[in-house]
Amino acid sequence: MSERFTKNWEQKRNESSFLNSINQVVKPQQPLKPRLDMATKKLDVQIHRLEQTSDRFIQKDKALFTKLVNSYQQHDMAHANIYATELAEIRKMTKIIMNARLALDQINLRIKTASELGDVVSMLGPCIGVLRSVNSGMGGILPAAENELCEIGDLLSGVMLDAGTCGGMSLNFNTVNEDASKILSEAAIVAEQRIGASFPDLPPGMSTGETADTSKT
Hints:
Elements: H1 2-26, H2 32-73, H3 77-117, H4 120-138, H5 143-167, H6 173-198, H7 209-216
Helix pairs in contact: 2-3, 2-5, 3-4, 3-6, 4-5, 4-6
């Protein structure tokens, strides 16, 4: 009885060791720094893509603004109102894109700092929260960027999980949420300033869609 038990136990232990070895081969735990470097490279691509999209919207805004002013000068208020509505929508999307790009700049800097200092868990928590917020805000503006941001978020989640497991660290979610909100708020303030600097005011008497909606209430 005892001999049979020992034999079975040794067999199960060998099987367990074999399965663990297979798991390590199939899915080895990769070093953290190369994965963080990969995340920053992916973010650089998305930031560049958002910059290009923002530039296109700014150029489109300039063209529409010229048409708006011409219609206004010719007292063609029907077309002027159409252009004003289009401008309102373009400026709304441009603000979302600028906000997203500035937020991505912030988390990219945080990831690079985490990679250099090794403070991975506390640094990456807010980054993942910001990525999720930016991703939801992008909506249907840039579907390709939306998918890429999901992949970056998954990559960072895996890095943070591995770092926390190895270091035995826990995450303070209140601090994470506060930091993420702070990053998003700072990005929104700068985006608002840049929107004001990039886009000229509408002619007197004209209003954007947002202003018009407010005046009705």
